[in-house]
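Re-run with default settings, no changes from the original entry. Doing this only to confirm the output is reproducible before filing.
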Amino acid sequence: MNTAEWLAAVDAHPETIDTDLVVAVAIANGSTTVDGWDQQTVDESIEELVGLGFVAEVFSAPCAGSCVGECTEVVLELRIPA
């Protein structure tokens, strides 16, 4: 997947907003967090990207090690919806 093409597709989609693009950049860089942002906002944007077909969860498992509270590791796959 060409990341620049994927980000351009996210940006061009009529149902995405600037928040979704910022979160998409974070995802493209291997993160599901955005510095200074509430995690709920990021999670909602990820859900929107999943719903629109830009991201697919291909694997999830409980975190290993020292997590505070509930923690799940997730592998996301970038997609350009048809």
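The first strand starts at residue 55 and ends at 62. The radius of gyration is 13 Å.
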